[in-house]
Specification:
This protein has about 260 residues and is an alpha/beta fold. It has one domain (about 1-25, about 30-235): Rossmann fold, CATH 3.40.50. About 50% of the residues lie in helices and about 15% in strands. It has helices at about 1-10, 15-20, 45-55, 65-70, 80-85, 95-110, 125-135, 145-155, 205-225, 240-250, 255-265, and strands spanning about 35-40, 60, 115-120, 140-145, 155-160, 165, 170-175, 180-185, 195-200, 230-235. Strands 2-3-1-4-10 form a five-stranded parallel sheet, with helices on both faces. Helix 4 (about 65-70) crosses helix 5 (about 80-85). It is globular. The two termini are about 25 Å apart. About 30% of the residues are buried. The structure holds adenosine-5'-diphosphate. Adenosine-5'-diphosphate binds near residues 41, 84, 89 and 126. It catalyses: AMP + ATP = 2 ADP. Pfam families: ADK. Keywords: Kinase, Nucleotide-binding, Transferase.
């Protein structure tokens, strides 16, 4: 992680300069996982990435969270960011690299190692920068049927006290033309969060549609970037968390690992 932090700090967005630091990357076996989660808005990247981070003991670094906390800080970037995010557009690579660099440096100071990145990289340029500074072991591309994405974004609720993510959408898609049906039960908060639920300002129908459009234009090419490097694991979510979590662990060869962890706990 030290190498990526150093690099991002010194050369926020120049991939060529970034490559010079590659030799500082720690040897593969001596470090924790360095994974990336890709997927459309609403697919559940945050939910599954944060569960895996708890299991593996690595930080969950979501660039969307970094953007939202910068926004909430009312710092010099706040009004610019608020305009971009509320239109469903992407923040510039330069701003994202600076926010990420700061997050990595803070984590490094606390002794963090490894990571799961969620929502980054989102453009080919970001993927190239990342490739120039560190080795990504695996990229998980989460997918669900397109019809569910909008409903999942509109149903998303966040507890403004504990930060927990919930979803009030109840999704039921019929199977057709060989495609299986899918049921996703709402993910309801505990009673003490109920009165504190808020909706993200960019989770409106108009903005979600724009985010989905931008995903297919700017972020889908990132899937191909990793596919061509043999790093992409495609994972079709079969339903909600109860069905999907065990299958995801199997796909990642972590099923036994989770059992051992829960026995040890
Ligand atoms: N890697 C990134 N590059 C550019 N903008 C980003 C990036 N990550 C997050 N953002 C900004 O933050 C917003 C929210 O991101 P995120 O929470 O990942 O939402 P979602 O995946 O649900 O669209 C994005 O719409 C975008 O404006």
């Amino acid at each position: 992680m030290a190498a990526i932090t150093r690099l991002v700090k010194r050369t926020p967005y120049f991939p060529c300069a970034a490559r010079r630091f590659l030799s500082h990357a720690p040897p593969h076996k001596e470090r924790n996982v360095q994974w990336v989660f890709l997927g459309c808005p609403g697919v559940g990247k945050g939910t599954y990435a944060s569960r895996l981070c708890n299991l593996l003991g690595v930080p969950h670094i979501a660039t969307g969270d970094l953007v939202r906390s910068e926004l909430a800080s009312n710092g010099p970037l706040s009004s610019q960011l608020s305009e971009i995010v509320n239109q469903g557009k992407l923040v510039s690579d330069e701003i994202i690299m600076n926010l990420l660099s700061k997050r990595l440096a803070d984590g490094e100071a606390k002794g963090e190692s490894g990571f799961i990145l969620d929502g980054f990289p989102r453009t080919i340029k970001q993927a190239e920068i990342l490739e120039g500074v560190t080795d990504i072991d695996l990229v998980v591309n989460l997918k669900i049927q397109e019809e569910a994405l909008l409903a999942k974004c509109l149903g998303r609720r966040i507890c403004n006290q504990c930060g927990g993510n919930f979803n009030v959408a109840s999704i039921s898609l019929k199977g057709e033309n060989g495609r299986p049906g899918m049921v996703m039960a709402p993910l309801l908060p505990p009673a003490h969060c109920m009165s504190k639920l808020v909706t993200r300002s960019d989770d409106t129908e108009e903005v979600v549609k724009e985010r989905l459009r931008i995903y297919s234009e700017k972020s889908q090419p990132v899937e191909e970037f990793y596919r061509s490097r043999g790093k992409l694991l495609e994972f079709d979510l079969p339903g909600g968390i109860p069905e999907s979590w065990p299958k995801l662990l199997q796909a990642l060869n972590l099923y036994d690992y989770e059992e051992k962890q829960s026995v040890a706990a």
